[in-house]
Amino acid sequence: MKFKQFLLSKGVIGAFIVVLFYGLLMVGIYFSGYKAVPDKIDRLPVAIVNQDSNSQALQNQLKDNLPFKHVKTNLSLNDAKKQLNDRKIYLIINIPNKFSDNLANLGHDEQAQLKFYINYANPMTAVSAMETVTNRIGNQVQKNILLQQGKAILSASAAKQLEQTTTASIKANPEAKAAILEKADATKKTVANDINNTYDQVKNSYTYSIVKMHRVPKGMNHSMAPFFLTLSFYIGSMIAAMLIVTSYKTFAQTIGKWRAYLSTQIAIVLIALIAPLFIVGLSRYINHFDTATYWGLWWNHTLELFTALNFNLIFSLMLGQLGIMINMPFMLTQVVSGAGLIPQTILPEFFKGLSYISPCYYAIKGNFNILYGGPNVTTIWLQLGLLGCAAIICQLVVIALQKNHSLAIKRS
């Protein structure tokens, strides 16, 4: 009877509702919100400002190759900069005055320079997309220019040599001038064709491919899923632990601290088993993964929630409501040490060390492997379970050191 009352107490029911509320809220908001990336990145407006009347062909080529639906070509550079600052456009590609003349000037009196303007006071996704496009377009233009210049140099050299040979032949045999010029013209066409064919082969002699292992579906809601899923459970567990402790302290007065603690652990196990059914279910509805993945994620987050609840319970048992003063900073550090946004290898040493006792770190690794492929999921689950058991041992020490009278609470 007492155990049933414990499970139906305000603290346990409140803990279950908090885990569900935060989990469903974060999954629903983040997964649906981040579906816009990268699918809608091409809707960001950009501008091409051409100040060189001889570079119309380059402008058209750039416009055709840009992966954006809205490319403005009718702005002055000052107007474009103003719109960039106002976030009405997100990238300016500027073809400066005399760009084509400077390209043709191989003496490099003035270097031809294509300019890209990016406003970095924008969300990371927009800036990253513009940097990627800038690098790709810049390299592509450079490659085309090098090919054209090399072709022009070779053509000029061949033409000069042919001209010298023709002049010498006419000088030696003036009567055959017409025949020599006709032959020179035919030779010129042959040489031009040979050069064009050679550079076509050069142009097509290289390409590259990307071999994608553990392919992640398009959309930031997929690439960020391992991180957001994990964080949604951990935030809920932090507040839920505070509520469970209130039930523990209340019942410890009547049934004893050890029986109350046993009831607390059973409640934690039940919450850890049931809550992920709904939260992972919502993520499946939004991200469309299969049944096997669903059950793998359910077990991964059952272990995470069990471990996280027990981790947060340590300081709630020690300090009561003030336990949040330790649990909150620990949760915030796990945003970094969980390695969902930054690889663990390049983390600062403090966060790298913290990752080994971070429930989020193991849960995020498990999510990546279950969702997109990777080894040793069972080992990750074992590590999560051992972390949870270590937290329980710490709790047992805390409870053993507490005196029964210290568990009393004031009744209103």
TrEMBL record:
<dbReference type="GO" id="GO:0016020">
    <property type="term" value="C:membrane"/>
</dbReference>
<feature type="transmembrane region" description="Helical">
    <location>
        <begin position="12"/>
        <end position="31"/>
    </location>
</feature>
<dbReference type="GO" id="GO:0140359">
    <property type="term" value="F:ABC-type transporter activity"/>
</dbReference>
<feature type="transmembrane region" description="Helical">
    <location>
        <begin position="298"/>
        <end position="319"/>
    </location>
</feature>
<keyword id="KW-0812">Transmembrane</keyword>
<keyword id="KW-0472">Membrane</keyword>
<protein>
    <recommendedName>
        <fullName>ABC-2 type transporter transmembrane domain-containing protein</fullName>
    </recommendedName>
</protein>
<feature type="transmembrane region" description="Helical">
    <location>
        <begin position="326"/>
        <end position="346"/>
    </location>
</feature>
<feature type="transmembrane region" description="Helical">
    <location>
        <begin position="380"/>
        <end position="401"/>
    </location>
</feature>
<keyword id="KW-1133">Transmembrane helix</keyword>
<dbReference type="InterPro" id="IPR013525">
    <property type="entry name" value="ABC2_TM"/>
</dbReference>
<feature type="transmembrane region" description="Helical">
    <location>
        <begin position="266"/>
        <end position="286"/>
    </location>
</feature>
<feature type="domain" description="ABC-2 type transporter transmembrane">
    <location>
        <begin position="18"/>
        <end position="397"/>
    </location>
</feature>
<dbReference type="Pfam" id="PF12698">
    <property type="entry name" value="ABC2_membrane_3"/>
</dbReference>
<feature type="transmembrane region" description="Helical">
    <location>
        <begin position="224"/>
        <end position="245"/>
    </location>
</feature>
<dbReference type="InterPro" id="IPR051328">
    <property type="entry name" value="T7SS_ABC-Transporter"/>
</dbReference>
